[in-house]
């Protein structure tokens, strides 16, 4: 699907944006087929996933668990569709497998599972029950540091997820142990399943909270590809403490009627909505893995 | 199986948490991947011995058991063999979801080591008396559950569990208790130990209740009853073969554990018998109630899990044959 699959580091911002748009189309097609799953979060994080997997990460899809790989933990397991689409476009799993999201006997579980647990390559550990990813990421960062290994650890959290107490335990642990081989990325979209985040549980002043837990805090427009790339570099360069990127995103990004609307947290589009969504997310040169509307 | 010159009236006393802690220090010498997480109670669970010997392989996470289990899973992903240790209730009840998703479902090589289990933490009262831990660990797919009977066996269990790349729950105690198994007696994971032979009834005991059962066998012998005693140190995977053979050969079973009656060792044994060889079973266990403050001895008597209750249960079981 992509040129230079073995080393697809895309540096051209237009290319990266087009990949992100294709991933968004893939997410819509996956959800149209599965008729179950989350729309908003996956669409919102497509740019960050593209920046990581097509530019920043030290990874090798043919050897998903190679020893010097960068680790990615998705603490918000429910945005799995963006991860699966990214992993497929990056060559970890066949593109055609995206048709099997949430289907019995498939590997694309509703919430991600690792290869060992009938999940997919590239996933390190299960997630789904919220709040658990950062503890795991800190543990891995500590283990890697003990062995003086160069791998960097990324943990993607949600803002609504920050309601979970375990995350604050893990923030304390990361700050205490000064795990500077760890970067947290918070999907700051101000939405969670019930309502806007400030209606469910006020998080502000969020940057100050992370600072108070001894993190270096960076903030970025999560849809500005160049800014996201730069921000990841800056975060990785932080020494002596862990870093967190507050990535300001819009839930449902790219589909007008889903954008910034918490009601799209946990539902798939119906056929009519999907048609509009795919029209708005214009086709790319990479092509879809399915023509969902063929014969309909 | 027993120590040489073993005197039932004057057993050597040693806390099983020390067997755990000494094994960790010895493991640390030979296995550089072994790391230990501290949840503030390191002096209580004796992981301070490892911390002082190998400070760079010891990670404090504070009094935060949910974070501890996740951090342990992350260390396992980095190729380490993490031991996460705290009191039984806080090692299981509080971080159950973390253990379920990040350790059991994800099949992480994490060793959860629970000290201060059961009624014998006594004066601390019901909040600290873990009586449900075996049940909620046993129910988890991929989890292995071991309840060694004394300090010497705990030591061996710790050395052995690192040979299996899988999650383990290992349960032991704070207080001094009889340390009666021989240091060179083999420990075979998943294979129950027959400690005393007999044909009238089989007592299948775990943890501290193995000692109470030794005393019970003595008392029963004086009354002309030959009870067999099996140390069911591995509760998951359960030794089906031994359970079925004991039921066939002795006709009835008594289980004995310092845990709730439901879903612990008794439940595990009964599940096997119900399916493969139905036989009368009596349960010596805490009867669906929480504990309270008191000495360990007082509580074992009050809640019906000391020697005399095992004796009575054996007699009841034999009558039902």
Key terms:
heterodimer, A: 296 residues, alpha/beta, Rossmann fold, five-stranded parallel sheet, 10 helices, 10% strand, B: 321 residues, 2 domains, seven-stranded mixed sheet, five-stranded mixed sheet, 13 helices, globular
Counted by DSSP, the helix tally of chain B is 13
How many angstroms separate the termini of chain B?
29 Å
Oligomer: heterodimer
CATH architecture of chain A: 3-Layer(aba) Sandwich
**N to C succession of SSEs of chain A:** HHHEHHEHEHHEHEH
CATH architecture of the largest domain in chain B: 3-Layer(aba) Sandwich
Structural class of chain A: alpha/beta
The CATH class of chain A turns out to be Alpha Beta
CATH class of the largest domain in chain B: Alpha Beta
Strand content of chain A: 5-15%
CATH superfamily placement of the largest domain in chain B: Thiamin diphosphate (ThDP)-binding fold, Pyr/PP domains
Spans of chain B of at least 5 consecutive residues whose pLDDT stays below 50 are none
Spell out the blueprint of helices and strands.
The complex is a heterodimer of chains A (about 300) and B (about 325).
Chain A: H1 13-34, H2 40-44, H3 46-56, E1 71-74, H4 80-89, H5 133-146, E2 153-158, H6 165-177, E3 182-188, H7 197-200, H8 206-212, E4 216-221, H9 225-237, E5 243-248, H10 271-280
Parallel strand pairs in A: 1-2, 2-3, 3-5, 4-5
Chain B: E1 13-15, H1 16-30, E2 34-38, H2 42-45, H3 48-53, E3 58-60, H4 65-77, E4 81-87, H5 88-92, H6 96-105, E5 111-115, H7 133-138, E6 144-146, H8 151-161, E7 168-171, E8 176-178, E9 193-196, E10 201-205, H9 209-222, E11 227-231, E12 234-236, H10 240-250, E13 253-260, H11 265-276, E14 281-286, H12 296-302, H13 307-319
Parallel strand pairs in B: 2-3, 2-4, 4-5, 5-7, 6-7, 10-11, 10-13, 13-14
Antiparallel strand pairs in B: 1-8, 6-12, 9-11
